[in-house]
Design brief:
The chain has about 150 residues and is mainly alpha-helical. It folds into 2 domains: about 90 residues, no CATH class; about 60 residues, His-Me finger endonuclease fold (3-Layer(aba) Sandwich), CATH 3.40.1800.10. It is built from 6 helices and 2 strands; from the N terminus they run αααααββα.
């Protein structure tokens, strides 16, 4: 905006603004309050040339809105475009769930079969969240940091 403040008219800026709004309306057909404050211009610039099925996007968004493990509902819109779970702030396992899994495993990492102290291990979803796995005690396993980081990098 500031770089255009001395222009004689704002036609170019207005046309860009309209393009962003029209792209959002075409791809995200149901308005939700979580859409406020999203940096739509940045998403538009990166994804405007991609083809999306608005109906499928809406189904995916609705499912994610209902998922109690999704901590950042605003991030759903970035997630459905990028596929990056970091936008969702998936709920982490509680300390109690971690302790239960640690005791159940007797401190043994399920990947390398070595013993570790609790503070040397990290909680991991047995069935990944993106495959429908929930963030609950039954789906929690403890891995040593090295194995968890290696697994997360796949």
């Amino acid at each position: 905006m500031s770089k255009n403040q001395h222009e004689p008219n704002a036609t170019e800026l207005w046309l860009y603004f309209q393009s962003v709004i029209n792209w959002v309306k075409a791809n995200f057909t149901k308005y939700r309050r979580e859409m406020k404050g999203i940096k739509w211009g940045i998403l538009y610039n990166e994804f405007k040339d991609e083809k999306y099925d608005a109906k499928k996007l809406e189904e995916q968004i609705a499912t994610l809105m209902e998922d109690e493990d999704v901590g950042n509902k605003k991030g759903i819109y970035s997630y459905v475009l990028t596929g990056k779970e970091k936008h969702l702030n998936i709920r982490a396992f509680s300390d109690k769930q971690k302790r239960e899994a640690y005791e159940r495993q007797k401190g043994i990492c399920v990947d390398c079969n070595k013993h570790f102290e609790l503070n040397e291990m990290e909680a991991d979803h047995i069935d990944p969240w993106h495959s429908g796995g929930k963030t609950d005690a039954e789906n929690c396993q403890m891995l040593c940091r090295e194995d968890n980081r290696r697994k997360g990098g796949k």
